[in-house]
Amino acid sequence: MLVSMRWLEQYVDLGNHTAEQLADLITKSGIEVETVESLNKGVKGVVVGHVVSCEQHPNADKLNLCKVDIGEEEPVQIICGAPNVAEGQKVAVAKVGAVLPGNFKIKKAKLRGEASNGMICSLQELGIESKLVQKEFADGIFVFPNDVEVGTDALEYLNLNDKVLELGLTPNRADCMNMLGVAYEVAAILKKEVNLPSPSVEHSDESAADYVSVSIENKEDNPYYGATIIKGVEVKASPLWLVNRLVSSGIRPINNIVDITNYVLLEYGQPLHAFDYDRLGSKEIVVRRAGDGEKIETLDDTERTLSSDHLVITNGKKPVAVAGVMGGADSEVYDGTQTILLEAAYFNGFVVRQASKDLNLRSDSSARFEKGIDRNRVHLAAKRAASLIVELAGGEVLEGPVEAGERTVEEKSVSVSVKRINRVLGTDISENTVAEIFDRLRFEYNNDNGTFSVLVPARRPDITIEEDLIEEVGRLYGYDNLPATFPYGEGTPGGLTDYQNKRRLVRRYMEGAGLYQVTTYSLTSPKKNAFFGEIGYNDITLSMPMSEERAVLRTSLVPHLLDVIEHNHNRQLDDVAIYETAKVFLTKQEKVSELPKEEEHISAAFTGLWQEHSWQKEKKPVDFFVAKGVIEGLVEELGLSDRISFQKAEKQNMHPGRTANVLLDEEEIGFVGQLHPEAQSEYDINETYLFELNLERLLTTNTEPLEYKSLPRFPSVTRDIALVVDEGTEAQAVLNIIEQAGGKLLAETRIFDLYQGEHMEEGKKSLAFSLRYYNPEHTLTEEEVKKAHDRVVDQLKQEIGASLRG
Amino acid sequence: MKERLQALKEEAVSKIEEASNVKEIQDIRVAYLGKKGPITEILRGMGKLPAEERPKMGQLGNEIRAIISDKLDEKMEQLEKAAVAEKLKKETIDVTMPGRPVQKGNHHPLTRVVEEIEDLFIGMGFSIAEGPEVETDYYNFEALNLPKNHPARDMQDSFYITEDILLRTHTSPMQARTMEKHEGKGPVKIIVPGRVYRRDTDDATHSHQFTQIEGLMVGENVRMSDLKGVLQTFAKEMFGQEREIRLRPSFFPFTEPSVEMDISCFNCGGEGCSVCKGTGWIEILGGGMVHPHVLEMSGFDSKKYTGFAFGMGPERIAMLKYGIEDIRNFYTNDVRFLKQFNRVNQ
């Protein structure tokens, strides 16, 4: 809502407040003033001029040589290229030395040999937006009415010295979508009176009822409809004051009739529609739901197809307007209109909203009906418009209006006690102050010992419960005056849950391990969701996605991590290690009818160098074991090392020889591996390693309590063995045998070498282990160690045919 | 004899002084003090001296031996020190060459802001609640006093999956879910961080996915002044002790009264600059007293209980705090962006 300061002054004494000061006060009491705009865009030195003569430029077909009286001793010569310039016009002249928007300075000039001392301006050149310029002046200079005084400030006549406040209205404050509402608000803030217009209309003897009948099919949709008939009007341009009001409010002036309906819409918040009575095609108005597929051509010359969700005004046969949204082209007021049917009605906001949405047609009218208008102002607004029409377009108002439904409703009462106000706000506001605030708001009330029964005016439909009144008191009392306190008597221990604590630990671990945390989108494409092929879950698809790329909820974090790798690779950032913890969304349902399972995962991606110390020429590229090592450290941190295992696996888009499933207690909780070289080249990135784990499983699996073990009191004994085994033998299998055979005395086993190649029999490899024996009871004897170690060697020979390497 | 001894001493001392390495010292020691050395030889000839001179001469001989020996030791020590110094000198490195980099990552800036806010509210006795990102229409809208057809639903166009299931548009559904769990008994003190989704085209200031932190306190004595006190503490901790706050009336369907909170601009201190668009104030969050319908729908008696709620956007806070100009940076994860958040802030 745009509020002109000059217009507002008509209703409320603004004292000495500047627009900026007023904006601040309004913002603080509840309505955010988004901008304060000066209509003067830096224009200086523009006066009213009188075109004394206008002749064609001797050397240019399209230019005119004008002598313009600008109130100085001699008329000045100005060359003007506007097609509509003519002798006798009163025009806006930028004198030599004047400044136009964009700091454009007017200087003496010579055009094709003739001097030009100034410029005759169009409205656009004075900083008015093209869309607000009347059609007749759209392609040329602006022409004043004849009664303006030559040599005076042209901006004053155009109201360009005004300032406009732009209100950012929240949905509850639709009452301020009109000047009177703003006036009530500002008067309450400034503690001033509101000067309301008091329209009066003299009726002719003729009765409107002889011209038209009105019927409403459904009172829910349309509780009230009033039709005023005005005969003998003259459609023409509006006077300057009216044009200025509309322009300052962002509405383009059309003609006096349309302008008046728009003016009253802005002033009262009541959308009105003027039909050309003679073009209605009948003598009746019937308000009903449209039929499915019924058509109407609206004012914007567009054919609209309606449905039974929409309310229409009909002439008894066909629609002549979409109720509350837009009138029809057939009955539009035009230059030759003589008789007007002025509609002032109350339409249900939901119905208007539906039509406006379905037809993709938002108007100043629909915006107001949707948010709710003042039920008790409908008739008054019609009166205001009728009186303005008589004043500016002539004609006579027939006795009426012809009405259907109830013209007004009773105002509702809401109660609140001073005690409750103070309990909710935490204040100590007196009964008198509460009463004074309600007075300022012009709410009638009955005060019974501190309990106020407030009669809420229909202009404030947002006030329906006690709390709404508490807010009114609070905001006008001023939130600056509210004390800042701490809650009492509600002591609670705050803190993180175990899960949240562990998740923070995981993040810190990952970062300590060298990975950067990333955040990526949950919405992805079906293609990316199919990255790992069939996973046993269905896509959860948005009903109206904004794009294919963001159409489904992701079932894996991996594809978006690869996007990050790609983004960085494209910027020559090739050493990247990243991770994310986020939810994946899983459903087995074909068509979602229950909330999906949301499972928190952790995923990481590694590419390029893992470690680099450039001047010492050390470079270690990422490999499978870097990724695996990060997982091993992670599960160690969570106390789950003993319960995690890795199992060779094949997975779509992963390297078939370098991928493993990760198992927790034998249950698969994720994978680790190298991105398949084909997928890698499809992404156009470098060699990349990945893992993704079900973080939720990891964090909800409890570990054994942490228990201290006494430090060793006796020395331990280490024995190394180098084994030759089949190439395909997995280290884990060997380790399992060693650990089982080693028994209680075997404290630790470490792999310290893997060898394949030269000096090794075809199909064989060598694995070397370091076994540490320890007995917590006493110093190990040679026999004890030998017995255990021999058992290990024997078992290895027996089970996997391992031989000791010489 | 005496003169010869003195001469030997001087000769030895000068040789010692001239010696430049350990070997030479060892040779000098053997040459002068050894059993076949000149001093021994001279002293052997002492028998020819008169008896009363012999002890004197013996004493002199021993003194000279001692002097030479001391000199040798002294020189030896000098040479050894010099040898060590020489060795260390050869080991000298350029200490200005860069150290071996420690591999480390860091929090995403959003996590950083979220954890900071979490910790602040934990300190004030709040717990952290988390809820589903795919929500029912009931929890996302209806339980928050936004019935179907409510005009305020326009304010947050949503990603629906079915008519009743959508991606949550705010973290507020956890208000209702948490209150239901409490079965009408206070106090409830939670904050809810999480990802939320709205139908916005991604650009420098809009993101279809973003983060929100919701706060809720319900109890028998919760007042709007408490909201002001709690938020003031938050603002000062988060943005600096010298910050002032201001509450402005606003509107949210799930709170009444509703407010928006501004803080005095941390860039200009309130005088007006580009960060605060000349107003001296920066909008940080919205909140208010929990609407009685919301309390009632979730099983709380609105006559007995009151509460406050608030919600804020970590993206906005991070953008303001660190001067990040484009919200998409949070989601494209350029490592040059991520790496900037690798250290403490003060």
From TrEMBL, chain A:
It is an enzyme of class 6 (ligase). SUPFAM superfamilies: Anticodon-binding domain of PheRS (SSF54991), Class II aaRS and biotin synthetases (SSF55681), Nucleic acid-binding proteins (SSF50249), PheT/TilS domain (SSF56037), Putative DNA-binding domain (SSF46955). It is found in: Cytoplasm. CDD domains: PheRS_beta_core, tRNA_bind_bactPheRS. Residues 40-155 form the TRNA-binding domain. Belongs to the phenylalanyl-tRNA synthetase beta subunit family. Type 1 subfamily. PANTHER family: PHENYLALANINE--TRNA LIGASE BETA SUBUNIT, PHENYLALANYL-TRNA SYNTHETASE BETA CHAIN AND LEUCINE-RICH REPEAT-CONTAINING PROTEIN 47. This is Phenylalanine--tRNA ligase beta subunit. The gene is pheT.
UniProtKB/TrEMBL annotation, chain B:
This is Phenylalanine--tRNA ligase alpha subunit. GO terms for molecular function: ATP binding; catalytic activity, acting on a protein; magnesium ion binding; phenylalanine-tRNA ligase activity; transferase activity; tRNA binding. Its EC number is 6.1.1.20. Keywords: Aminoacyl-tRNA synthetase, ATP-binding, Cytoplasm, Ligase, Magnesium, Metal-binding, Nucleotide-binding, Protein biosynthesis. The keyword Protein biosynthesis applies. Its cofactor is Mg(2+). Binds 2 magnesium ions per tetramer. Belongs to the class-II aminoacyl-tRNA synthetase family. Phe-tRNA synthetase alpha subunit type 1 subfamily. Its main location: cytoplasm. One of its GO terms (cellular component) is cytoplasm. GO terms for biological process: phenylalanyl-tRNA aminoacylation. InterPro entries: aa-tRNA-synth_II, aa-tRNA-synth_II/BPL/LPL, Phe-tRNA-synth_IIc_asu, Phe-tRNA_ligase_II_N, Phe_tRNA_ligase_alpha1_bac, Phenylalanyl-tRNA_Synthase, tRNA-bd_arm. Pfam families: Phe_tRNA-synt_N, tRNA-synt_2d. It comes from Exobacillus caeni. It is found in: Cytoplasm. Tetramer of two alpha and two beta subunits. Mg(2+) binds at E256.
